[in-house]
Amino acid sequence: MNHIQLIQSTAAQAIETLYGQTVAPDDIVVSPTRKEFEGDFTIVVFPFTKWVKKSPDAIGQEFGAQMQALLPLIAEFNVVKGFLNLSLTDQVWKDVLAAEMTDPNYGRQAPNGEKVMVEFCSPNTNKPLHLGHVRNILLGWSTSKILEAAGYGVVRVQIINDRGIAICKSMLAWQKFAGGATPESTGAKSDHFVGDYYVEFEKRFREEYLNWQESEAATAVYEAEKKGEQTKEQFFKDYKDRYFNEHSTLGREAAEMLRRWEAGDPDTVALWKKMNGWVYIGFEETLAAIGASFDKYYYESETYLLGKGMVEKGLASGAFYRKEDGSVWVNLEDAGMDHKVLLRRDGTSVYITQDLGTARLRYDDFGISRMVYVVADEQNYHFQALFEVLKKLQEPYSEGLYHLAYGMVDLPTGKMKSREGTVVDADDLMAEVIAEARAGSQERGTLADLSPEEQEEVVRKIGLAALKFHIIKVQPRKRMVFDPKESVDLQGQTGPYIQNAYVRIRSVLRKAAEENVNGQAASQYAVLEKQERELVRTLSEFPGIIARAAADYDPSHVAGYAYDLAKMFHRFYHDYSVLRADSEAAKAFRLNLVTAVSNVLKTAMDLLGIEMPEKM
């Protein structure tokens, strides 16, 4: 039982003793005391006024006295406008520090026997990973790490979107315009090489479209279909997709390539395998640099026909219905949505049909009770519908589905557009932040005693910490503007700021090891300084932070906590000496304290996918 649970159970006992009311301990809200007030934990007493005809302050005074009588670990209390603030004894904090917090695994929970799948990344094979993928990967990876720390068995998966018209655009452009060039012959990173041909296709298509607009055929279409006084410029701006499907030579060739692929044409399939193979090599290099990996890959080329059997099951059970034209639909009005098609009239699948089959396949593969999909909030409706359909099918995992929706990432100049090549590639972004970290390190000269290889390893950790923390500290649902210059700032609320706190502690601990400090003397340290109490109390919140982040699927809770703890340590380090403390007891206690801080900072940052250097 932790301190909050102990206070809750004691509070329930005090309520029954004083007011004759039975209250479940979990219904009593206990929270850390706000920093501007004295105390460790706070109970709101306003709800008690429905039992007692007294002012909240009067209730707080008698309730606090009863709590103190029942629970000796409460040293004192105060009441501020209906808020009862409880201060625990110094001995409580010393005991919990010695018994729990110096354990490197402090904060991590024992396995709870429940499995959860986290799907993230899931790129298309027509372009390299970019900034949008980086946010997705960092959220997915850190969420999976946090869930593991909270006791879940985690399976990390992604589905590779390796088929469709976009993939055929890259294939066709390479076939028509590459002249046999390869990643090896050009020296290009293989996924970038393929992505360049996706951009090339769009460039050639725009040229074709502009030329067509000057033709008699285009004029005839415009005259026949324009609306009112609509100008040619306005008309053709909105006509682009129809042109691709109905008039474009390139569009026709790409669609024909897709039909040949679906028919299993050997030459088309061979080209598809070759170009996808180039992309996979590039993806793996990028993922390794980011520090993410997966337990299983699913491929849309293998799953796009799945789900039809589940639709037939839904028809048989009455969950779905068939229209006169043969198409199959589901009525989602009871969930506040409309009717959703599941099979077209020709019997072919739609995207949601594939996702139904993939969900069932994953359940069969891993027996998971929860599935978390990390996908941008542009797909909110799709996942809401998917989850409702799976509930109607009474799938055994249908109550454990969650869409971790995140806001899109914009640049200061606006939205990124892959087809126009206006994206920030993940590889370029990582190289930029590492270069910035390298420049800062060289300017400070703090790594001069390390070998060149060791220096590069340190600057890699610093640069990636700057990038990752800058993104993860933002609550997932918020849309964010990514400014590369701001992201590599090594001061303020940044990853390197937290790393610096850890590095300072590691330096102190190395020096302490040379002095052979008597660790047993810590038990003789009598009275804690205010900042020492604050640090221990903040450390005590760490398991709850992990639990909250896991429950909310929100790594920003951990990021905010790590920054607050680092900031608190930096202030303590400025105001108090560890190795030159006034007594051996103070020195030993503070060494235990900063050891616990370093452990928690390392664990918290590890949960965010951030490595800690020993020097900076």
CATH architecture of the domain at 118-304 and 354-410: 3-Layer(aba) Sandwich
- CATH superfamily label of the domain at 118-304 and 354-410: HUPs
Number of strands: 14
Terminal CA distance: 39 Å
CATH topology title of the domain at 118-304 and 354-410: Rossmann fold
**Count of separate DSSP helical elements:** 24
Which strand order spans the largest sheet, edge to edge or round the barrel?
Answer: 7-6-5-11-12
What percent strand? 5-15%
- Gross morphology is globular
Percent range of helical residues: 55-70%
Give the overall average pLDDT.
94
Unreliable residue runs: none
Major sheet attributes: 5 strands, parallel
Structural class computed from helices and strand pairing: alpha/beta
CATH secondary-structure class of the domain at 118-304 and 354-410: Alpha Beta
Radius of gyration from CA coordinates? 30 Å
Q: Keywords for this structure?
A:
14 strands; five-stranded parallel β-sheet; Rossmann fold; alpha/beta; 616 residues; Gyrase A, domain 2
SSE blueprint and pairings:
Blueprint: H1 3-19, E1 30-32, E2 41-44, H2 56-70, E3 74-80, E4 83-88, H3 90-101, E5 115-119, H4 131-149, E6 153-160, H5 165-177, H6 183-186, H7 190-212, H8 216-225, H9 232-238, H10 240-246, H11 249-262, H12 266-290, E7 296-299, H13 300-303, H14 308-317, E8 321-322, E9 328-331, E10 339-343, H15 351-366, E11 370-376, H16 380-392, E12 401-406, E13 409-410, H17 426-444, H18 452-472, E14 480-481, H19 484-487, H20 495-515, H21 530-540, H22 542-552, H23 556-575, H24 584-607
Parallel strand pairs: 5-6, 5-11, 6-7, 11-12, 13-14
Antiparallel strand pairs: 1-2, 2-4, 3-4, 8-9, 9-10
Helix pairs in contact: 1-2, 3-21, 3-24, 4-22, 5-7, 5-11, 7-12, 10-11, 14-15, 17-18, 20-23, 20-24, 21-23, 21-24, 22-23, 23-24
